């Protein structure tokens, strides 16, 4: 039989055999994708028999997931800050901890003040798009070293109606930004130390873009470039928000002890780990 109930049971067993976390829930998500139906339909109609096309699609996505390809790449989307975003292997999958950065950015900007934002390493565009959706008077520039990532960000910006307020261009950190100054600079840079890559989950290590995960060194070199260069690209009393990794907070705080920065805070994630550097230019900074 090729009913929802039977195939879900088989898929869960296959995924468990590949050590996929939450195998049952993952099987349900893959079934929803294969049928184009919601969870309520699956619960209400366990006896529904899949047609041949649906069976083949479900079988193929279960196989992909059993090889530890991320669910988000298989279904082609990820929810972030209430928005559905297109994702593929050219961009990192947006994560809940990054929403802390977005919340802080919206708090700083407010919903009515015209504000200019620079996002370094725009990836899927999740940060800039979420901010612009909640701050209709703001506009932004998103940069990335990857042309393919920029294409994904453009697709998401258009889908959510902020493409008129979000410019996108290739740049290696500040190299091609020019003399423009911004009210706010945000970034979720590659901060995983090269030595930690092998210990990551297969979904991350083997499938997400390595250039977006690590600088190939300590995980701090790009953060250092951002913190060091930001004062020359911020307006007076401008803010910098940067996501950082576990155990990096003290070294990152040390990068701000140059006299350029005034208020410096480290915002913790839900596990209590310092996750976001929030730094404001000192009022005495000379431009």
Short summary of the structure?
With 287 residues, the chain is of the alpha/beta class. It is 39% helix and 20% strand.
Assign a percent range to the helix content.
25-40%
Largest sheet: 7 strands, mixed
Low-pLDDT stretches are none
Helices and strands, in order, run as HHHHHEEHEHEHEEHHHEHEE
Strand fraction equals 15-25%
Radius of gyration over all CA atoms, rounded: 21 Å
How far is the first residue's CA from the last residue's CA? 72 Å
- Strand order of the main beta sheet, please? 5-4-3-6-7-9-8
Q: So what's the overall shape? A: elongated
In DSSP terms (H or I, runs of 4 or more residues), the helix count works out at 12
Looking at the chains present, what oligomeric state does this protein adopt? single chain
Structural class: alpha/beta
Query: Please, what is the average pLDDT?
Result: 95
Task: Let me know the number of strands.
Answer: 9
């Amino acid at each position: 039989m090729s009913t929802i109930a039977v195939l879900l049971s088989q898929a869960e067993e296959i995924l468990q055999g590949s050590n996929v976390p939450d195998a049952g829930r993952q099987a349900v998500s893959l079934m929803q994708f294969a049928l184009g139906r919601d969870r309520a339909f699956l619960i209400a109609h366990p006896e529904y028999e899949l047609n041949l096309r649906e069976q083949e699609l479900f079988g193929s996505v279960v196989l992909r997931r059993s090889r530890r390809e991320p669910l988000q790449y298989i279904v082609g989307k990820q929810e972030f800050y209430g928005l559905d975003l297109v994702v593929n292997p050219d961009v990192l999958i947006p994560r809940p901890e990054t929403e802390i950065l977005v919340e802080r950015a919206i708090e700083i900007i407010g919903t009515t003040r015209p504000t200019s934002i620079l996002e370094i390493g725009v990836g899927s565009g999740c940060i800039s798009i979420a901010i612009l959706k909640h701050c209709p008077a703001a506009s932004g520039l998103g940069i990335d070293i990857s042309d393919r990532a920029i294409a994904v960000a453009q697709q998401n910006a258009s889908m959510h109606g902020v493409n008129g307020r979000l410019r996108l261009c290739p740049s290696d950190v500040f190299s091609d930004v020019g003399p423009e100054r911004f009210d706010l600079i945000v970034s979720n840079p590659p901060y995983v130390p090269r030595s930690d890559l092998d210990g990551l989950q297969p979904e991350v290590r083997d499938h997400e873009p390595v250039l977006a995960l690590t600088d190939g060194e300590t995980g701090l070199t790009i953060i250092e470039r951002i913190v060091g260069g930001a004062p020359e690209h911020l307006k007076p009393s401008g803010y910098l928000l940067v996501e950082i990794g576990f155990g990096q907070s003290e070294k990152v705080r040390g990068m701000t002890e140059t006299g350029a920065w005034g208020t410096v805070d480290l915002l913790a994630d839900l596990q209590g780990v310092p996750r976001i550097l929030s730094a404001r230019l000192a009022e005495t900074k000379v431009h």
